[in-house]
What we know:
The chain is α/β, with parallel strands linked by helices. 35% of the residues lie in helices and 26% in strands.
Amino acid sequence: MSANTNTFESIKAVLLSAHKHCSSTDKVKFYDTWAETYDQDVAVLDYRAPSLAANCIASHFSGERETSVVLDVACGTGLMAKQMRKHGFRCFVGVDGSEAMLDKARESGLYQDLKHLVLDKDPLPTQFAGSFDVVVVVGAMCAGHISFNVARDLFNAIKPGGCICLTTRSNPENLEYKASLDLELKKIEEEGLGTCLEVIEVEDWERGVLEHDGGYISGVVYLYKRI
Ligand SMILES: C[S@@+](CC[C@H](N)C(=O)[O-])C[C@H]1O[C@@H](n2cnc3c(N)ncnc32)[C@H](O)[C@@H]1O
C-alpha cells in the first residue's frame, strides 16, 4: 500500500463533492472514484464504525464464530470483515453497489463470495432468505445511501436466532433519515420479526467535514436479534 498523501482538507473536498450525487446509482459511482484511497482516507477521518459495530456484535453473539456466515451489506473495501476476523468470524459474503469498492474487497481475500447489487434498485437474491447468521450494514444506512426501507428485507435474510447490526449517523443532516429508520425498526419489532439487543449512541463517531460539525459528528450502532 502506498503512503497516503491526502490531508483532512483534501478528503473533506472529496466528500463535499459527493453531495451532488443524489440517486443511489450516482452515489455508488462516487465510491468508484474513491475506492483507491478509501481505507487510508477514512483512517484520517477517524472512522470507527466498523470496530464499534464488530465489538457490539462480539459482545452478544453466542454462536460458533468460525462457521457462522456473515452477510456484509455495502461491504466497501472490506473494513468490517477485517474487524470481525479479530473476533473469530471467518465466513463472509459481501454485496456492494460499487464495482471498484468490490475489487478492493476481492483483493483483501476475506470474502467467500462478493456480489454487485445496488440496493433500492436491485432486490436481494431470493436465495439470501433466512441464510445468514449475522447481517451487517456499516456506514451505508444514511441519507443519500441505502433507504431505511431495506432494513425489512435484511431482517428476512437472517436465520432465526441470528442477528443484524446497523449503523447510522445522528448529526443534524441525517436526523430525518434516522427518525425514519427508528420507526421502521420499531414496526419490525412490533411485528415480531426481531428484538432489540442494544443501541449504542456514540458522540465521537467520526470527524465531520461541515463547518458547523465542530470536530466530530455522532452516530449510532443498533443490534437486533431475529426471532
Ligand atoms: C462509507 S462506505 C462503507 C463501506 C464499509 N461498510 C465500511 O464501513 O468501510 C459506503 C458503501 O456503501 C455502498 N453503497 C452506497 N449506496 C449503496 C446502495 N444503494 N447499494 C449498495 N451499496 C451502496 C458504497 O458503494 C460504499 O462501498
